[in-house]
Amino acid sequence: MTINTPHTPFDLVNEPWIRVLDLDGIDREVSLADVFRRAGQLRDIVGEVPTQSFAILRLLLAILRRAAQEPIAPEDGLTTDGRPRDLEDWRAIRENWTRVVANVEDYLDEWHDRFDLRHPETPFFQAGGLEYEKGGMDRLGMIIADVPNGEPFLTMRTGTGVTSMSWSEAARWLVHTQAYDTSGVRAAAKGDPRAKQGKVFPIGTGWTGQLGGLYLKGKTLQETLTLNLVEPETINLDVDWEADLPAWERPAQTSAPEGGIDGREPIGPVDLYTWQARRIRLIGDDAVRGVVLCNGDKIPPQNRFTIEFQTAWRFSDPQTKKFKYDVHMPRELDPSRSLWRGLQSLLSSSEPRSDIPPKVLAFAGELMSRRVVPDTHVSVRAVGIKYGSNNSTIAEIIDDHLELPAELVAHDNGVLADLALRAVAQAEDAARELARYAENLYRCAGGDVESTGPRDRARELAFAALEPHFRKWLLGLTDSRQITELETRWQMRVHRVVREISDDLAGEAGPAALVGRQVRGRHVDLGLATAWFRKRLADQLPMAMAQMRTKEGAR
């Protein structure tokens, strides 16, 4: 096969390749230049998988950040070098999008050749001339996240969907692979000094794959981009913007890791948005037919919270003991827990060595506290991957969202944040008591005392039933003077929902549960199990019980 000869460009600046939804809900492809020009008429970036959308959003943020280095206009109140230094400068960007787009167009024109997907020397997000030591190429399944472990089983993609793809789709998967590729031993590229017997040992997943990715979602893509253009000075962080370069402004990639075998340290958010975790070359002619995929630049995750804004960070005791100083690691998303149940990782805490909330949400708090934006709530979207054994496979892709009232993320309303966290804990406690009740019902009806199925099912039922109620209640947290009333209202709702589920469980228990039996040395039947459950539930929701007693006394 003749590969890319003569050179036929695929120009990402002007060729349509980014999948988007417009405000009418129509799915279309646009170019890099058009995605900025039309951002106010687009709803969102979409992709083959949600993580692809997030990876492309981070690419756009890198471009926007670099283009924002140039002045918009003196009358806009920006600093002389154009970089937004405070919220007033940020507001100038938000309110002068046409001029921002002009800067983006100038920037893309300046670096135009580096956005050619098929350039023979500097192909976008690839290493020109990359070859395996042993020659050949791999199938496209290696870069397609919905093909498990690169194999075409258990997937809807068959036939030409794996053996070839358009250059536009390949561009999307290329960005996704640099962000989320699985870990594992890779075939060595020619010239890679790390090669041993034709292989390179694992260096971890792509950088974004190590995160519990979070971003603020606006009504349009333009709003989404500006909301996520975090200004570190506003939240007391310092980034060397002059040195914080994206991949296309750095030297052309070779098979060797940048910075030598020991690698290099990331500089700032732009560097992380475009981190080259892999060395890749797409191979094809009129379509992409194969890929060379090798290990690239390794990046340890410890304490990157000063430059990575789109994840929460958890304090790690084992890592702290290992390194002899406080260490925070990216908090990954848990596919078994909806985002609302992980609310603690999103809100600030005064506890020492506590989690660090995502900086993008801290920035939103500043926007809300200072009334820089008129929004009444913040929409947070969470996107991530749960990897399988040794991070070598993709087990699950996570996509969730949560609406937060502006008052909850504003920095001067910690009392509302404390209430929200108590409410999550109360839901967890009530679900636990329901699970124990279901377990007792199952046992007293003759079920296996070692089985966890009924308990797990009851817990899932509780969380599924409480979730829509919590989301609605959460949006009502707007007045810190009504803490008692708000908390009582929530406890009443939890009590009613969980009691209704418990009544259904009792109705399903069957005649044997009425008689009961001996379970681990004591008699258990439906009546006793119900009495125990109601007592423990009441203990967990004291404000609800006080309210009900008040209502009963008034009758």
What number is the mean pLDDT?
89
Overall body shape: globular
What class would the helix/strand composition place it in?
Answer: alpha+beta
Strand line-up in the sheet with most strands: 2-1-3
Q: How would you describe what is shown here?
A:
This protein is α+β, with helices and mostly antiparallel strands and 555 residues long. It has two domains: 18-409, no CATH class; 414-554, Topoisomerase I, Chain A, domain 4. Helix content is 38%, strand content 13%. The chain is built from 17 helices and 14 strands. The chain has a three-stranded antiparallel β-sheet. The chain has a three-stranded antiparallel β-sheet with strand order 6-11-12, with helices on both faces. Helix 13 runs antiparallel to helix 14 (483-508). The longest helix has 31 residues, at 414-444. The chain is globular, with a radius of gyration of 27 Å. The N and C termini lie far apart (87 Å). Pfam families: CRISPR_Cse1. This is Type I-E CRISPR-associated protein Cse1/CasA. It comes from Myceligenerans pegani. InterPro entries: CRISPR-assoc_prot_Cse1.
Write the topology of this structure.
Blueprint: E1 18-22, E2 27-30, H1 32-37, E3 42-45, H2 50-67, H3 87-95, H4 97-110, H5 160-163, H6 167-180, E4 186-187, E5 199-200, E6 213-217, H7 221-227, H8 269-273, E7 278-284, E8 288-295, E9 313-315, H9 317-323, E10 328-330, H10 359-369, E11 377-387, E12 394-405, H11 406-409, H12 414-444, H13 453-474, H14 483-508, H15 511-515, E13 517-519, E14 522-524, H16 526-540, H17 542-554
